[in-house]
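for ur thesis appendix - AmmeMemoRadiSam system protein A. copy paste whatever u need, i formatted it the way the template wanted (i think)
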Amino acid sequence: MTTDAALGPLLLAQARAAIAGTLGLKATEPGDHPALHELGASFVTLTREGQLRGCIGQLQPVKALGADVADNARAAAFRDPRFAPLTAEEWPDLQIEVSVLGPVSFVHCPTEEDCLRQLTPFEDGVILASGARRATFLPQVWEQLPDPQDFIRQLLQKAGLPVDLWPADMQVGRYHVAKYKEAG
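the 3d part is after this line
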């Protein structure tokens, strides 16, 4: 995970250009940086008037970071199943945040208490995985859900897992992010 200050504005520009191009709007060509060509995993979060408008990403690096950001930006804008596709009318009020994920480390947590002991609130992104079900919250979600037990229970719900019966096969993944957000 890179925290190069020059990279953030380029990633934001990459995301904005990908969305603008899909909307048929003029986009400024983002600059270049060596990290854009290295394998990377990212999430792109879109907000409008302070409200979530889309969030899509990858937990593991499978392509170059620049391409990952562009693909996730388009997916967050046009394919997040929670929202209708973004329109050109919404474009002027859209704010973009790019989170570049560091490596994920998984541990088996047979109880909720084991899981809670593993976490560092406000720092860790968290993945819960049991059987075929999995869900993640980026570290930024701690701002809305500061209580660790509430954080985990909301994540269980997101994964479609029961909140009152902890799965014995639960794997908990932790990761950190480098976060870049447009001003405004």
